[in-house]
Amino acid sequence: MAGSAVIAAGAAAVAAVAGAAADRWWRARVRRRFEAEHRRRFRMTATGVVAGAEPFTLTGARDRAVLILHGFNDTPQSMAALAARLHARGWTVRVPLLPGHGVGLAEMAASSRAAAWCAAVRAEYDALRRTHARVAVVGQSMGGALAVLLAAERPEIPALVLLAPYVGMPRPLQWQVAAAWLAQAVMPYRASTGGETSIHDPRARAAGLGPGVVTARTLTELRRVAEDAESMLPSLAVPTLYLQSREDNRIAAPHAAAMFRRLGSADKRLHWLTGCGHIISDDYCRDEVAEETARWINEHGASGHGAR
Fold it and tell me: 113, exposed or middle or buried, with CB in 10 Å at 0-12, 13-18, 19+?
């Protein structure tokens, strides 16, 4: 019996080692396949950024600026139309590229962290404040959550615009995070689900530069930002415009309405959109989004609220 037990234990150990080796082989294969597909889809610049996804600045007035923050798995490209509209109204506009975005998948997986996103947003805002008396802030999706966190720290912000902000923890994201962690032992990357309806306009959707790929860790970091932003909503005092599509595939209308009610600002407005998905700055409703955003920022940001 003792000999049989030893043999069984040895067989189990061999099987475990073989299983671990098979898992590593499969993970490496999945990683190579996803990374090769990303290289096939996108042209990279010499700096390692997807061509077209670079951060940009539109120089306008010397005393007032707008910081625009793109969303999770997105790039500044999706904010270009909005930035152009605000620049045409005289504002200096800065649209940074958040860490882990618009880069290769390996860097995306390693650099997409909540702390890095928050630090980058603070640095971008503070840089604009050193040269402009007033800096309004616009954020879309996760960029909206980051904008909430920034506004909670920088109450001098004269105007805040949240475009379908990813605040709180919508149930579909809870499921995605759980599924990603369950599968991550053999799936280091996984295709992001539902993105095909985030933009209804087929031309804008085809021009998007997001990878459509997530990891368990990057989804967890998104959840952290969303939950932290929700906790700060009641203390927010900055004048806030909240724009939300009723057909948003990521954030259900009741969830958005509940988050808006939690906003502590005495000066706030919820504007509903129809006919577009989650990336409202780049969808069929882009003109309405740009006009409402410009109006809010001109009414609130052009005043002396944020002056030093």
Answer: middle
CATH of the domain spanning 56-301, picked from 3.30.2420.10, 2.40.50.100, 3.40.50.1820, 3.10.150.10 = 3.40.50.1820
Phi first, then psi, for residue 206 (nearest 5°) are -65, -25
- Measured distance CA(144)–CA(158) in Å, rounded: 16
Beta strands in the chain (DSSP E): 56-58, 64-69, 92-95, 134-140, 160-163, 190-191, 213-214, 240-245, 268-273
- The pTM for the full model equals 0.89
pLDDT in tens, 130-164: 999 999 999 999 999 999 999 999 999 999 999 99
Q: Which one, of 84, 78, 73, 58, lies nearest residue 293 by Cα?
A: 84
Domain chopping of the chain, boundaries = 1-41, 56-301
> Are the C-beta atoms of 221 and 116 separated by less than 8 Å?
no
Q: How far apart are CA 37 and CA 298, in angstroms?
A: 43
Residue 35 identity: E
Cβ atoms of 243 and 163 within 8 Å: the answer is yes
| Residue 178: how many other CB atoms lie within 10 Å | 12
